[in-house]
Design goal:
The protein has 432 residues and is an alpha/beta fold. Helices cover 35% and strands 25% of the residues. The chain has a domain of 201 residues: FAD/NAD(P)-binding domain (3-Layer(bba) Sandwich). The two termini are 34 Å apart.
Amino acid sequence: MSTNQLADNHDHVRSYYAATQNDATGYPELQGDVTCDVCVVGGGSAGMSTAIELAEKGLSVVLLEGVKIGWGASGRNGGQVIGGWNQGFESLEKQYGSGVSDLFWDMSEEGKRIILERIKKYDIDCDFKAGYVSAAIKQRHMDELQDYNEYRSKRGYPHEVINLDQSTIKQHVNSDRYIGGILDMGNGHLHPLNLIKGEARAATQLGVSIYEMSPVNRIDYGSEVRLHTDKGRVMAKQVALCGNTFLNNLVPKLRSKIMPAGTYIIATEPLEPSVANSLMPSGAAACDMNYVLDYFRMTPDNRMLFGGGVTYSGTDPKSIEGLMLPKLQKVFPQIAQAKIAFQWGGMIDLSVTRVPHVGRVTDNVFYTQGFSGHGVVQTRIAGRILAEVIAGQAGRFDMWNKIKHHDFPGGRLLRMPGLMLGTAWFRLQDYL
């Protein structure tokens, strides 16, 4: 089933996350007119984080979601709580100066803290577990990890990082595919749908009015912004647009700055505990160092959750299992015959620079988008930054906004083939 088809049935994609969600609470559709200080558009992690931060500052907030809370990438992703950005800190420093690089380092670590603090503060049960392995397939990957370790050390990285060779990595990932890697105890993994469902509950406790099945179809700009849905209107002093790939034609000038891409995950039936423990003995999550990478972890009920792959067509492959199972078997031939219980995909939003955007549409309408596969952490800090600028504190927002938001070259017709060509070049590097 394609992502577009799923939009028609108004339900969460059939995933392991949806099958194990703790809270199936639904929220009403907007009907009639409501007024607020800030309207947040989008019930994914960026929008929910913005809403929570604003409500904690005492502002009245209405959040509009077009389908269900966490319906998009926020409730379907791999659940990796990892620092960093899809562009290196040294590259950011070279292009924009040390101030921007320092900001992004600090925000990366702050984004992880936001998640952990929110889990504790609002008692969110989302299976968080510390520990993340970056696994090297070739010596070039080991060199890259060493360089990054040295950079983190200079930054005073506070978490335990353990270097792994070909034998010690098997204490975490029992596969012959990897020659070594690192274990980072400052990163981790969780159940992303249960996290955002818990955040939604927290938001309502703080006074946020959440409406599902309420896509915005028109915005009237002005000192008072009016947002129109099929059955209602929101009148707001300020607006935060956090719909990412699902904003569609609502703000055309933003659409050209991101590119939707599909990524995919499979989950096995529960394995015997002894088998599960033998595959990933420490319980850490892992990913490899390829450009088009694999990521994987065990779930609390002993399923292997394995993700990766990428498409740019806007539709899912004919068989997600057919795409992903050979990748799993290559890493873990021990479970080559395991039955696949769930297979699903979702759309992420790529930016040209692979750095997320924050910006203004007008003086009182703000947006964030373009998380490029690193959204679990980055959306939380982006929400905080949007809340700061809306509340009158523009310092970090203005610094972030120094990064130019480029359009994808070639327009709507040529951007997809261009990106596919670029990705093909990086895939080639993975084989070298």
